[in-house]
């Protein structure tokens, strides 16, 4: 578990470094913040589990999330003399499921507050390539077009309402890479919530000219079995001009020609944390290729020998780039 926390912290530190560069444009910063948020939640969950505190699942089926929201609200709907209906069959997994549930709960409770007797409140889910679209519609009095934005800024007409709910819900949705909007509807109010799928491919970080010059033309073979760490390292190195071949399994080495690589960047986990085994397997394929090992445990570090460098997790992107430049470009 401590190894997983070290991995998460490595990714967080790396994306924070990317976002703080003077050359980082808004797209890069936005991308970095999404990655930091995702891994920060993961690290928090792991840390709380380590001390025995149970956490809500960070990832779950959207169908389960919606069911878990609607079931407790059935009594409220009955008292309001309204019906709650779930439409659509989306069952893809979503990220930050606990926060998604809180937002949908807020939207449904708002709808119940304005629902006429005998009316219907529908919650519809649709799957898209990168997101899940959740629509909450009611048959109440609706929201005038001139208030389409102000309702997300604390403007509430709900009795006893403070206006905090929608404002907070939109902030959370945007922080998680989604969006919350009031959309036009013929009857009542309709809110559309976009939320990231757990299996969505992450867009590569935008390339900066300054960073691209650092590892221009460097060919790196990366062996890392943690997909989140692999995703970050590949994006960070390619953003600096490197060509990266990413492997998650040592067995896949047989399909790679190390003669076309300038350096190997490897975590010890794929080698079952056996440093000697890792060195022997890589040296059997190339006696002179520089190797950079990354490790989350100081106890794993073996005696240094020519052509081999050890970097401890969590590390900064700058540190790793400087090591690669030193061993492969000199």
Unreliable parts: 298-303
State the CATH superfamily name of the largest domain. Response regulator
What fold name stands as the CATH topology of the largest domain? Rossmann fold
Q: How many β strands by DSSP?
A: 12
Number of individual domains: 2
Radius of gyration, whole Å: 25 Å
Supply the CATH architecture of the largest domain. Answer: 3-Layer(aba) Sandwich
Structural class: alpha/beta
Number of helices: 9
CA(first)-CA(last) distance = 37 Å
Which CATH class of the largest domain is shown? Answer: Alpha Beta
Gross geometry: elongated
What descriptive keywords fit this protein?
five-stranded mixed sheet; alpha/beta; Rossmann fold; 19% strand; 2 domains; 9 helices; Heat Shock Protein 90; 330 residues; 40% helix; five-stranded parallel sheet; elongated
Structure description:
With 330 residues, the protein is an alpha/beta fold. The protein folds into two domains: 176 residues, 3-Layer(aba) Sandwich (Rossmann fold); 138 residues, Heat Shock Protein 90 (2-Layer Sandwich), CATH 3.30.565.10. The protein contains nine helices and twelve strands. The strands form three sheets. A five-stranded mixed β-sheet has the order 2-4-5-7-6, covered by helices on one side. It is elongated, with a radius of gyration of 25 Å. It starts with a helix and ends with a helix.
List the helices and strands and how they pair.
Elements: H1 2-20, H2 26-50, E1 59-61, H3 62-79, E2 83-87, E3 93-95, H4 97-114, E4 120-127, E5 131-137, H5 164-175, E6 179-183, E7 190-196, H6 209-212, E8 219-223, H7 227-238, E9 243-247, E10 263-267, H8 275-285, E11 291-295, E12 308-312, H9 317-328
Parallel strand pairs: 2-4, 8-9, 8-10, 10-11, 11-12
Antiparallel strand pairs: 1-3, 4-5, 5-7, 6-7
Helix pairs in contact: 1-2, 1-7, 3-4, 4-5
């Amino acid at each position: 578990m401590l190894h997983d926390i070290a991995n998460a912290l490595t990714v967080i530190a790396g994306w924070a470094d990317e976002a703080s560069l003077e050359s980082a444009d808004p797209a890069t910063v936005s991308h970095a913040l999404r990655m930091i948020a995702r891994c920060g939640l993961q690290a928090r969950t792991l840390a709380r589990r380590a001390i025995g505190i149970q956490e809500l699942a960070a990832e779950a089926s959207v169908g389960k999330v919606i069911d878990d929201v609607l079931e407790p609200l059935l009594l409220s709907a009955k008292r309001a003399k309204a019906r709650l209906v779930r439409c659509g069959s989306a069952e893809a997994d979503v990220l930050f499921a606990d926060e998604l549930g809180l937002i949908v709960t807020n939207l449904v409770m708002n709808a119940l507050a304005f629902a006429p007797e005998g009316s219907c409140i529908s919650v519809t889910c649709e799957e898209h390539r990168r997101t899940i679209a959740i629509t909450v519609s009611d048959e109440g009095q609706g929201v005038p077009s001139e208030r389409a934005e102000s309702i997300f800024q604390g403007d509430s007409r709900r009795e006893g309402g403070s206006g905090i709910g929608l404002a907070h819900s939109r902030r959370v949705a945007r922080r998680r890479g989604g969006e919350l909007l009031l959309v036009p509807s013929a009857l009542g109010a309709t809110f559309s919530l976009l939320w990231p799928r757990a299996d969505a491919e992450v867009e590569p970080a935008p390339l900066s000219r300054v960073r691209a010059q650092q590892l221009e033309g460097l060919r790196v073979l990366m062996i890392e079995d943690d997909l989140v760490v692999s995703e970050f390292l590949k994006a960070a190195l390619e953003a600096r001009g490197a060509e990266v071949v990413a492997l998650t399994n040592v067995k896949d080495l047989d399909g790679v020609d190390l003669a076309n690589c300038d350096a190997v960047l490897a975590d010890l986990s794929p080698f079952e944390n056996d440093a000697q085994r890792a060195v022997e397997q890589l040296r059997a394929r190339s006696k002179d290729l520089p190797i950079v090992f990354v490790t989350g445990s100081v106890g794993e570090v073996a005696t240094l020998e020519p052509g081999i460098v050890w970097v401890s997790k969590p590390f900064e992107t700058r540190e790793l780039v400087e090591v690669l430049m030193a061993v492969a470009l000199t």
